[in-house]
Write a structure and sequence with these properties.
Elements lengths: L1 E5 L2 E8 L2 E4 L1 H5 L4 H10 L1 H9 L1
Antiparallel strand pairs: 1-2, 2-3
């Protein structure tokens, strides 16, 4: 696991099986980030997707 700094935000990068994954949660954190995540979780399409997943 490593971290990079982008526009004053610390973003986590995890390497697994030769592939790198970035934390979208880290990218959205900030002033409006919590509200955006809450709105996304309430979205009908998100709920349907999570139900199928």
């Amino acid at each position: 696991m490593s971290k990079v700094h982008v526009q004053d935000k610390e973003i986590t990068i995890i390497s697994l099986d030769g592939k790198d994954y970035i934390s979208l949660t880290d990218m959205i954190k900030g002033e409006l980030g919590d509200q955006l995540i809450k709105n996304w979780l309430r979205n009908k399409n998100t709920i349907e997707y999570l139900g199928v997943w």
